[in-house]
Amino acid sequence: MLIGRVDTDAGTLTVRLDDDGEFVPMEDPYAAFAAGRAAQDVGDAVQGTLVAPAMPTVIVGIAQNGPAHASPVQAWLKSPRTVIGPSAHVALRRDAGTTVAEAEVAVVIGRDTTGLTAENAHEYVLGLTAVNDLSSPDRTASDPRNFESKAGVGYTPLGPVIDTAVSIDDDLAMALVVDGVRVAETSAGRLPSGIRGALAYVARWLPLGPGDVVMTGAPFSAAPVAPGAVVDVVVGRMTLRTLTS
């Protein structure tokens, strides 16, 4: 199932995308997930615009989970106020050096993570989506805690939908496309720290809940971007577009 959120004349609704790409309103998918069943439709197809498919209370980034990083899994926090949806616009900071786009798999948590281990992590995951973890790496020279380097209005494009049919064990194809040019091509299987272990590490220290997001790292999927670039993050069958200025 592909789960999204759309802005409509009646407000923001949770929907599934049917085979024709129409938006069908559905009940709360997190409540259904916690009850161990599929969410049910609650109305006919509607017209609307996709927004971020989750509104996390907590966003966790997995640190040093890219090329040439051999250290144990670590994590950091990013503000949920930086989340924007698909095809949204973000003004890149001019005061923070180079901006880098990072194509990543984002795990959307389905229920309270008490009891989550590496072995049972899949039981706590609603689905996966794409995220563009926009960053300002030049700031790490004076800000090793990632606060400045990961801050910025709209610096966490998320979406376009949550894919519940894929698994945290799938070697999902990933790509970063800038202005139509495929500048990076990789897969989730190239993450030095696997998704199961990353989730178990996070849950050991920090409780997560429905709608929270764990960004799993950029395995050879990052590239600098300039203002005006159109950036596409491809994760499995999802493509997340970000417009910049």
DSSP summary, beta strand count: 17
Order of helices and strands: EEEHEEEEEEEEEEHEEEE
**Treating each run of at least 4 consecutive H or I residues as one helix, how many helices?**
2
Describe the sheet with the most strands.
12 strands, mixed
Can you tell me the overall shape?
Answer: globular
Looking at this protein, list some descriptive labels:
2 domains; twelve-stranded mixed beta sheet; single chain; 245 residues; mainly beta; five-stranded mixed beta sheet; SH3 type barrels; Fumarylacetoacetate hydrolase, domain 2; 7% helix; 17 strands
Verbal overview:
- The radius of gyration is 17 Å and the shape is globular.
- The protein contains two helices and 17 strands.
- The protein folds into two domains: 1-51, SH3 type barrels, CATH 2.30.30; 52-244, Fumarylacetoacetase-like, C-terminal domain (Fumarylacetoacetate hydrolase, domain 2, Alpha-Beta Complex), CATH 3.90.850.10.
- The protein has helices at 29-34, 195-205, and strands at 2-8, 11-17, 23-25, 49-51, 59-63, 74-78, 83-84, 88-90, 99-109, 125-132, 156-163, 173-178, 181-187, 213-215, 222-225, 230-235, 238-244.
- The model has no long low-confidence stretch (mean pLDDT 94).
- It is mainly beta and 245 residues long.
- Strands 1, 2, 3, 4, 5, 6, 7, 9, 10, 11, 14 and 15 form a twelve-stranded mixed sheet that branches.
- Strand 1 and strand 2 (11-17) form a beta hairpin.
- 7% of the residues lie in helices and 39% in strands.
